[in-house]
Amino acid sequence: MSKQILFRSATLVSSQGEQKGDLWVKEGKIFAIGEDLLSAFQASAPEGQVLEAEGLLLVPAAVDVHTHMDLDVGIARAVDDFESGSRAALFGGTATLVDHMGFGPTGCSLAHQFEVYHALADGKTYCDYAFHGVLQDICEERVAELAPELDKGCPSFKLYMTYDKRLNDADVLKVLRMTQKLGILVCVHAENHDLVTHNKADFVKQGCLSPHYHPLSRPDFVEEEAVERILRLAHIANDAPIYIVHLSTQKGLEVALQARARGQKHIYLETCPQYLLLSDEVYDLPEPEALKYIMSPPLRKVEDQEALWAALGRGDIDVVATDHCPFRIGKEKLQGLGNFTKVPNGAPGVEERFLLMYSEGVVKGRLRPEQWISLCCSRPAELFGLGGRKGDLQIGYDADLVLLDPRQQTLISQSNRHSACDYTTYEGFLLQGQIQKVFLRGDLVVDGQRFLAKKGEGIFLKRQPCPELNA
Ligand code: URP
Ligand code: ZN
User: How far is the CA of 121 from the centre of ligand 2 (A)?
Assistant: First the structure.
């Protein structure tokens, strides 16, 4: 049982805004929040710990609903497993992961990958975790398996419009008709596969193999077309809930906003820090440096970044997640030296997101503090069935907490990262703010540079469908 803690005189930042006050942790949960709880705390818990937090921000630990720990992409395996990835997450102030599982063997049941992923994560993960299911090889039997998986605690599945196991439009409709009835949230990787395949083949034929051609093979309308199509299909399926992952373009954003403006319900949007803070000129860096940034979708133009920031500010984007999927520049990425089509796609980010969004978002005036918490903590928790438990400062919530010093700075460098990857795409970013302590269900797990979590301390989270998806 974790000990009782009173955080004194902190600046408490929740999805509802900022207030100065005390926060009392008891039995791993937030027990009370108030202006002055000291005498009540001392009377009730004389053995408890009082932590003076004057001048510090006390915020909910973040929730990352888009990671790929230990992902097998055929030509390589993501180098963070659930152990190293969850350690990096905690150092970055993220205490809950909802991981996107990889594809299983052709024709496997929906349950198959849950078993595989429990074997990868259980007993290894330092923070709390869950998995989104994955949709592939659709047939009546697979569709019929959705309800039992939901009952087991999985209210979100992902489908891909690209890659080998992508779904065609007819299969998408079969799935969405069922997920709409059940209140399951379907996450969608929206890229037009045929266009990407055609473009890549053309570039290969012409000998255009440098990283410069990676974004050109996946231009913005590849995303725009796929977002438009999936949302039209969702509308046919009675406004089935759709969550677009890693939205990267102004064009993709616009078609999603148009669908909302037409009155379509249950459209949810996610972007990632890389699409807000990095842009496509990095693909002209010399190899292998440029390979660090090969990911799908690719980094975009400054105008796309600006459109995404503006959408965040207006509240049009629901979640900022990471798509953490690291491959080493000294190893796995080198397979694609001289041929961008052979580079395993993906980059790290689980450790960087929360502080990046504070410094680049709140400190630079692009986001209000409560928007930062909503995007990184409370809204992802709510949408993915962890509302009432994770991602906010409210009585009864898990005491997953971060103490952040807004007066200190953090210089991001590979030398101070905790992922198993050998680079960070944010090398040299000087951020305002420093994460000082991280708590998981009331236990101190990160204290400055000290890591105190126990391997396997993270618990698997059974989730409920988000109530608003049925409205
Ligand atoms: O490049 C990326 N994003 N790799 C991870 C797998 C995926 O497509 O999300
Ligand atoms: Zn992803």
Answer: 18
pLDDT confidence bin for 1, thresholds 50/70/90: low
Whether ligand 1 lies within 6 angstroms of the CB of 295 is answered as yes
Nearest ligand (C-alpha, residue 343): 1
Per-residue tokens: 63: 């929730």
In angstroms, rounded to a whole number, what is the distance separating the alpha carbons of residues 460 and 355?
A: 25
Residues 6+ apart with CB under 8 A from 351: 88, 89, 91, 92, 94, 417, 418, 419, 424
Side by side, which strands form the sheet with 62-67? 62-67, 94-100, 128-134, 156-160, 185-189, 242-244, 267-271, 319-320
Kindly identify the ligand whose nearest atom is closest to the C-alpha of 99.
2
**Centroid of chain to Cα 357:** 13
pLDDT at 256 over 90: yes
Task: Read off the pLDDT of residues 289-332 as tens digits, 9 standing for 90 and up.
Answer: 999 999 999 999 999 999 999 999 999 999 999 999 999 999 99
Q: Two tokens at 463?
A: 């989730």
Residue located via tokens 């009540």: 40
To 5 degrees, how large is the angle CA 89–CA 433–CA 376? 45
Ligand 1 contact via 189 beta carbon (within 6 Å): yes
Q: How far apart are CA 84 and CA 90, in angstroms?
A: 10
User: Which ligand gives the minimal distance to the CA of 270?
Assistant: 2
For residue 2, pLDDT over 90 is answered with: no
pTM value is: 0.98
- Asked if residue 138 lies in contact with residue 174, where contact means CB atoms within 8 angstroms, the answer is yes
CA 160 / ligand 2 centre spacing (Å):
10
Asked if residue 96 lies in contact with residue 64, where contact means CB atoms within 8 angstroms, the answer is: yes
User: What is the chain's length?
Assistant: 471
C-alpha of residue 243 to centroid of ligand 2, in Å: 13
The dihedral region occupied by 416, where left means phi > 0, alpha psi between -120 and 50, and beta the remainder, is alpha
Q: What are phi and psi of 76, to 5 degrees?
A: -165, 170
d(CA 184, CA 464): 9
What is the rounded average pLDDT for all residues in the chain? 98
Number of Cβ within 10 Å of residue 156's Cβ equals 26
Asked if 346 and 78 touch (Cβ cutoff 8 Å), the reply is: yes
- Give the number of C-alpha atoms closer than 13 A to the C-alpha of residue 101, restricted to the C-beta side: 26
CA of 55 to the centre of ligand 1 (A): 39
| Measured distance CA(15)–CA(391) in Å, rounded | 9
pLDDT at 220 over 70: yes
- Indicate if ligand 1 lies below 6 Å from the C-beta of 323: yes
User: Residue 226 belongs to what H/E stretch?
Assistant: helix 220-236
**Residues facing 33 on adjacent strands:** 23
How do beta strands 94-100 and 128-134 pair?
Answer: parallel
Ligand 1 mutation target, pool 68, 99, 134, 340, most atoms within 8 A of CB: 68
